[in-house]
Structure formats: structure tokens, C-alpha cells
Design goal:
extended; mainly alpha; about 400 residues
Length: about 400
């Protein structure tokens, strides 16, 4: 197998050599012409121009640029050829190791082949082996996943992954992905430290990794979340919840968190996941210092259909800023509470146009009693109120 693979590499190199020969001939012809032209220009400069400091500087710059060009062009050509060769080699190794891993899974490898596989020392080969193991492990079969994880540990590929955590941030991300996929928990503490880093991408990957590595407490990272929990991070976490079969926690456990962004994320999760048992804890946040949190609280209570919260919301109405006042009125309409029509009617003559509009909309949502009341109010109301009610009751809207 190894001899056959060497022959394949040699054939590929010969093919590249055939292509390179033509490229090199063209390159050296161009280089020869360029050198002759440059030499003639330099000679002209030395013979015709008066020699002074400026001319000397110009000539020196020409020589420096020429020397740099002579070194730069071959290095670019060599790097292109090397990258092309490296890519081809990666593809061949990937195919080779994919077949070997599949044979390992069906118990078709001899003892010698298995021993050779476990003794691979090349960092490049081990990197490809790790990628192959992760790609084959689709997590559809627990038996396959178990065998792949066992081979990963037997080959000590986990040590390579751990080593990546001590390098630059893009290596750290690769290491986190590998360790979390293979459920290697030895570095959980170090991964949790990455949650404090300013690099947002690294923080997101750390959160994703910890959710996989801590299946019984997958959201434990929220306890130590010091940086603002950005919308992008929240979307990634929610997407992982949606795709993976992860045990969903009681998100009200983090509603007392000092980080407001974490509290707002938990409120969103309570609302989306309809965790109605969290309603009493959510109501405690109605007096929160942050208006953004209060807005989330009101929206959450409405979506949880908590009628108990309406009384508290009405008491807070006059103390709140306009956005939260509108949310309170809107919540009464969404709950379709006929018993709260009087509250809406009391505020329908408010000086603020948006409040008047929301009161009319909420009355219409109550149903027939609300619509009848709007029609009655339209007869005796001012011109602005008549236009609002006409707009709300328009069947085309």
C-alpha cells in the first residue's frame, strides 16, 4: 500500500515537472529581457545624468527594487507550486485514510496495518486523520461514534487537539471543535477561560463546545459569562439547541444574573420554549432597573399568557417610559381580556398618539364588545380619535 502510494506521488510530481518546465522557460526569458532593459537604463543614467545625491538615490532605489523583484518572483512561483502540490497531497491522504478508517470500523484491518495507523507521527498526517475521523463520525450510530472516539484516544490525537488550545485563536477554535466533538472533557476549565476573551468568534466556539462537553449542565457557561452576550452569540446557541438533542434547562435559574444580556437571553428562551412555570420568577423582574429588560419581561409574560401579571403591569403603567407603556397596552390586547376594557378606555384620550392607537387596537382585539365600544367612542370623539378608530376597524387592514 505504501509503495503504491509513493508511486502515485512520484507520477504526480512528474506531471507537475512537465508543466513547470514550460512555465520556467517563459519566466527566465522574461527575466533575461527585464535584466537587459534595466541594465541599459542604469548605464544610461550613469553616463548621461550628472552624478549628485538625488541621482544616486534614484539609482540605488532601482537596484534595490530590481534585487527584490529577482527574489520575489521565484518565491511567488515556488509558493504557488508548493500549495498546489500540498492540496493534491491532502486530497490523496484524505482518500487513503478514509478507506483505512472504514476498514477499521468493519474490522478488516490486520494487526500490522492497525499498528502502523496508530504509530503515525507526521503532524500533517495526524491533522488529516483527525479531520477524517470527525467527518466519518456522523453521530447516527453510538457504536460507530464509540469506536472512532476510542481510535482517536488510542492514537493520542487528543494531545494534538489540546496543544492547539495553547496557540493562536484560530488554532484554539480548531482544538475546541475537535475536543468537543470527541467529548474530551479534560480541558473544560481552559475552554471556560476563553469566555472572557474579547474575540467574539472564540467566545462563540467556546460556548458551543461547552454545550457539547457538559451534556448534563450544557448551559453552565452562563454562570461565568462576563462579556456582553451578543445577539450573534445568542443566535448560535439557539441554533445548536434546535439542531442537537440537548437537555433544555430551566432558564429562570439565570434570571438573577448580574449580566443583563444573559437575563434577556433567558427571557427569550423562556418565551420561545413556553416555560410557563417560570412566570412567577419573570414577574419579579417587572421592577428591574434596565428598561430593555423590563420590555423583554412584559413581552415574555404576554407570550406566556400570564393573566396574573396584568394587575402589576397596570400599576406600573404611569411610571414607565413610552415604549414600555405601549408594550403594556399591547399585552392587554393580545390576552383579549374583556375585563380590562375600562383601563384601555381610560387611556384612549391620552395626549400621546401612539398610546391612543394601541388602545384602539387592543380594544378591537378583545372582540365584539371592544368593537362596539370603539364605534360608540367614534361618535363622540375628536377628529384624531375618529380617524384612528376608522383605521383600526377598516376591514382591509
Amino acid at each position: 500500500m505504501q509503495i503504491k502510494f509513493i508511486y502515485i506521488i512520484l507520477i504526480e510530481l512528474l506531471e507537475y515537472a512537465g508543466h513547470v518546465q514550460g512555465v520556467l522557460l517563459v519566466f527566465f526569458d522574461f527575466l533575461k529581457t527585464f535584466i537587459e532593459k534595466t541594465q541599459s537604463i542604469v548605464n544610461y543614467a550613469f553616463e548621461r545624468l550628472p552624478y549628485n545625491a538625488l541621482n544616486g538615490l534614484i539609482i540605488s532605489m532601482i537596484i534595490v527594487f530590481f534585487v527584490a523583484l529577482v527574489f520575489l518572483l521565484p518565491s511567488i512561483l515556488f509558493s504557488k507550486l508548493y500549495l498546489s502540490y500540498r492540496k493534491k497531497k491532502t486530497e490523496l491522504l484524505y482518500q487513503k485514510y478514509s478507506k483505512i478508517i472504514v476498514r477499521f470500523l468493519i474490522d478488516d484491518l490486520s494487526e500490522k496495518e492497525l499498528s502502523d495507523l496508530k504509530n503515525v507521527k507526521s503532524k500533517f498526517h495526524r491533522k488529516i486523520l483527525t479531520a477524517v475521523l470527525i467527518s466519518i463520525d456522523t453521530a447516527e450510530s453510538k457504536l460507530v461514534s464509540s469506536e472512532i472516539r476510542k481510535l482517536y484516544l488510542d492514537m493520542k490525537l487528543n494531545e494534538d487537539s489540546v496543544g492547539k488550545l495553547r496557540k493562536r485563536w484560530h488554532h484554539k477554535i480548531r482544538g475546541i471543535r475537535e475536543l468537543s466533538h470527541m467529548r474530551v472533557k479534560s480541558e473544560n476549565k481552559n475552554i471556560m477561560e476563553f469566555l472572557k476573551r474579547p474575540n467574539e468568534i472564540l467566545r462563540i466556539e467556546s460556548q458551543m463546545g461547552l454545550i457539547k462537553l457538559l451534556p448534563f449542565v450544557p448551559f453552565a457557561f452562563l454562570d461565568s459569562q462576563e462579556k456582553p452576550f451578543t445577539v450573534w452569540e445568542q443566535i448560535n446557541v439557539f441554533d445548536l439547541i434546535r439542531k442537537k438533542r440537548i437537555e433544555i434547562p430551566e432558564f429562570h435559574l439565570w434570571l438573577d444574573h448580574w449580566n443583563d444580556s444573559v437575563v434577556m437571553f433567558c427571557l427569550d428562551m423562556i418565551r420561545v420554549l413556553k416555560q410557563r412555570e417560570a412566570a412567577p420568577k419573570v414577574m419579579e423582574l417587572l421592577y428591574h432597573d434596565n428598561d430593555l429588560v423590563k420590555g423583554k419581561v412584559i413581552k415574555t409574560l404576554v407570550d406566556l399568557e400570564s393573566e396574573e401579571a396584568v394587575g402589576k403591569l397596570k400599576k406600573l403603567f404611569l411610571l414607565e417610559e413610552l415604549p414600555n407603556q405601549i408594550n403594556i397596552i399591547r399585552s392587554i390586547g393580545q390576552l383579549r381580556l374583556e375585563s380590562e376594557m375600562n383601563f384601555l378606555i381610560e387611556n384612549i384620550n391620552n395626549e400621546e398618539f401612539k398610546i391612543r392607537m394601541e388602545c384602539c387596537k387592543s380594544l378591537a382585539l378583545v372582540g365584539v364588545p371592544g368593537i362596539v365600544k370603539l364605534q360608540s367612542l367614534s361618535e363622540n370623539g375628536d377628529e384624531e380619535l375618529k380617524r384612528i378608530i376608522s383605521h383600526v376597524l377598516d376591514p382591509r387592514i
